[in-house]
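Newbie here. four chains, one complex. Structure please?
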Amino acid sequence: MSRISLAEFRALVEAELPLVRIFGIAVEDLGRGRAVLTLAGGEGAMRPGGTMAGPLLFALADVTLYAVTLSIVGRVPLAVTTNLTINFLNKPGLGLVRAEGRVLKAGKRLIVGECSIFDGQGGGLLAHATGTYSVPPEKA
Amino acid sequence: MSRISLAEFRALVEAELPLVRIFGIAVEDLGRGRAVLTLAGGEGAMRPGGTMAGPLLFALADVTLYAVTLSIVGRVPLAVTTNLTINFLNKPGLGLVRAEGRVLKAGKRLIVGECSIFDGQGGGLLAHATGTYSVPPEKA
Amino acid sequence: MSRISLAEFRALVEAELPLVRIFGIAVEDLGRGRAVLTLAGGEGAMRPGGTMAGPLLFALADVTLYAVTLSIVGRVPLAVTTNLTINFLNKPGLGLVRAEGRVLKAGKRLIVGECSIFDGQGGGLLAHATGTYSVPPEKA
Amino acid sequence: MSRISLAEFRALVEAELPLVRIFGIAVEDLGRGRAVLTLAGGEGAMRPGGTMAGPLLFALADVTLYAVTLSIVGRVPLAVTTNLTINFLNKPGLGLVRAEGRVLKAGKRLIVGECSIFDGQGGGLLAHATGTYSVPPEKA
């Protein structure tokens, strides 16, 4: 079972992470070591060429891995990304995209996860990320 | 000499990359294989804990490497990130940050670069990224 | 169906990639966009602390993604890694480890894949890698 | 000043990391937060196409960052790589290559560094890596 509830995680990011509102990121589902989030897209998400800007997909992956991390360690706002690698695989449109994150390793100090981002329509794989969150010592 | 002028690159991202306006990204300097950009920060840049959200630093790194890429291949809007790895090194505040990008390899099809992001005040190193841009075949 | 046979891939790496013999890497299975390889381990694989050295797991991941790539493009020896990110998740012993690779994107010029490395005994996840192979232009 | 001497680091890896002998890795220089190592190359280093196999460059980068890490934390054999990203930039020959590593962040628990690998002849940049070492809690 997740150590943070869906409602509690939503409240945390809505209050303290403005970019979820800016980008239209929504937390759809949360379980221990897994999370599903979406990003709305739209005109503001555009990059040259008319596809979705990579940083939006990165933001979605990062918040998804934050959800995965807090599902394991509980409400520790200062869990922070230490590094993240993202591969952009297929050109996204400007519509809804959907991220599925899962834990790869739940250590005491480091949580490693992966995140796959799919097109909200056809479901094609748009991007894949792996990242590490560090849990502050007092909470580790 | 850069194959895209500073004015031309600024015009491109201001017209077709809304997130530069959303995040307050400014292109300060551009030469062949190198670029300097800043990001303004502010309340909207916050993450839980009161520091700057990682995706903003990623966005800054990604646009910086886009500038580095176009400085080499010229105005090819559809040059796209194939992958990017970012390491977050020190906690950023919410003020101005400054990115310095440079090319590591200028291939016909792939441009690899690195980007260091510094605090706008003390100048401490906040993040480091390496990434690859792919140049579309017709232009490669 | 794989565009290179298991026998043909084995022959290629046994003839031209000495580290498969040095490290005891064996190609177990190969299909289109997927491959299973093992690495024997042993005393020579040790690192300080008595666990398996990271570069051996990297070597296994890299050869696995090479197999995945050639399964898609056929016998193109000069397909080369452009980048690879590996996360070490759990301490390996010195015994057999097993890698499962699969394609994430099969582009004309770039093949992106992921590889999970498991303990040969208990099956725990030891490492995870994502990497990109570049296919030379004449073959792309 | 480095918290491990050049002689002490050499002795550690020669005794407990067989791959330095297998690959001909030599520790040339070591200072606080920086290290220079070389790898001899030769026939055993080959990959299909006649260039140097990527895993050898990875091994060199990994041992270089291990030296950088121990230069900061002292003789802590169980400092381990948590992740490493390597970009292969130019085709290496089979001769000597030279790695220069430096620290990007020296945290209590995580040491982040970067490593550039150069051709031993002309000095061209062959590969670039960034990686993170984790220092075990009792020593952190």
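Moderator note: Chain D has a mean pLDDT of 96. The CA atoms of residues 4 and 105 of chain D lie 18 Å apart. Thread marked as resolved.
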